[in-house]
What does this fold into?
Amino acid sequence: MDTNQPALSVRDIHKQFGNTEVLRGVSFEAHSGDVVSIIGSSGSGKSTLLRCINFLESPNSGEIVVGGEAIRTRKDKTGSLVPVDKAQLRQMRARLGMVFQNFNLWDHRTVMDNIIEGPVHILKQSKKQAKEQARALLDKVGLFDKEDHYPSQLSGGQQQRVAIARALAMNPTVMLFDEPTSALDPELVSEVITVIRQLAEEKRTMIMVTHEMALAREISSKLIFLDQGLIHTQGSPAEVMDNPDSDRLRQFLGMLNAA
Amino acid sequence: MNDFVTNIVNCLPDLLAAAPLTLLLTLVAGVIGLVVGTFLALARLSGQPLLSLPAAAFMFVVRGTPLLVQLYLIYYGLGQYLGHSWVRQSFLWPYMREGLTFALFAYSMNQAAYNAEVLRGALQSISKGQIEAAQAIGMSGFQTLWRVRLPLAFGNCLPVLTSDIIILLKSTALASTVTILELMGTARVIQRQSLQVYEPLIACGLVYFVVVVLLTALMRPLENRLTRYRKG
It folds into this structure.
C-alpha cells in the first residue's frame, strides 16, 4: 500500500431518506494515524455519514475507499448503492472497526466470546491465538478479570470498553466511533474516554462522531462541523473551535457552552 | 374403595408399556416441528412474497383449525387418496399405511405452525443493534442468522417452546382416534376389556401427569443453561 494513500476516503456521499436529503455531498479523507471528529447538531447527518462508511446505511451516491480499495457498488432500483460483491463488502467491513452508541454486544456471548467471534469466524484465526489477543485487549481496556462475564453483568462503561476491544480484535484499518459515550451515565463517561484517548496516542486511525467537545479538541487531528448534510467547516480543532467562521458554527458552539 | 385402587394399579403395567409411544410422538413431532417451524418463521420474515405468503397462509390455516380436524383429514383423507395412487406401489407404503405416520405428520405440521409463530415474534424482538454489530464485523447473512439471530431468538422464547412441548404431549391423546395405541388408546382398550369406566382413565391421567412432571424437570436445567446470559 502506498504510504501516501489515505486510510479512508469518503467521496461525495449523498443520502436521502424518502424525500429528505440527509447528506448532500460529503467528502473527506483520513490518513493513517489521523483522528477525525465529526460534530454537529442532532439531525445534521453525522451518524448517517458514519454508517454510510461501512454500508450499514446505503448511500445514494458517492464512494468509500479503504486503504486504496474502493467498495464496488451499483445502483439498485430504489436508487441506493448496493455492493456488487457481498464478499468484498464483508472484507471491507472487517477492516472498519465499528463502536456503537449502544455498545451492541451480543447478549448470549461472554465477554471473551464477543471479542474472539470476529477473529475466529471472520479472520479464521485459531481460537488459542484469538484468546491470547483478546486477553491482551481486555487488559488494555482495564477489564482483564471480566472475560467470563456476560454483557448483562457489566455496567454501560464496561460494555463499551468490551465493544472497543471487540472492534480492535479485528485489527482494523480504521476505527469508527458512533457517539461512543452518549448512552452512558455521566460518571461512566471518563473510563471510556480514557480508552479512546489511549488509542489516539497510539496513532490509531479513527473517525468519531461525538458530542464530547473537550475530547474532540484534545485528540483530533481534524474536526469536521457537519450542518444540514454538508461539511460546513473543517480544520484543526483550534481553527474550528477558537475562530468560528460563521454564525451557524458560533451558534452550535454557543449552545454547547450554554448547556 | 380398595378394589377401586387395585383396579387403577392393575391398569398401570399396560399403560406404562404404552408410554414410550406417547413420548415418541411427542419427541419426533417436537423436533420436526421445531426445524420446520424455524424455516417457516424465516420464510415468514424473509420479505420475499413467494416465501412469506405461503408460510403465513400455512400458519394461519393450521393455527385456525382444530387439531382433531387436521388429524382426521390427514388420516382418512390423505390416507385414502394415497392408497389409490401410485404411492401404493412404492416401498414406503407399508409405513404410510400406518396411522402413526399420518399422526406424526399431522402433529409435526401443527407444532411447526405454532413454533413458527413463537419464533417469528422472538426473531423480531432481537435488538437491531446486535444484528448490525454482526454485519459491521463482516459476517455474512447466514453467519448473522446462525451465530446471532437464532441463538438470541431461541433464548427469548425457550419458555414458550417448552410449554408448547407439554401441550403437544397432552394433545397426542387425540392420536388414539386414528388407531394409535398410545397412552389414551391403551386406556380405551382397557376400558372395553375390563368394563371399568373410571379406573383406566384415572390411571392414564396419572401416567400423563408423571410424564409431564418428568419432562418439565428435564427441560428446566436446559432452559437455565441456554438463558444463563440473562441477568439474575
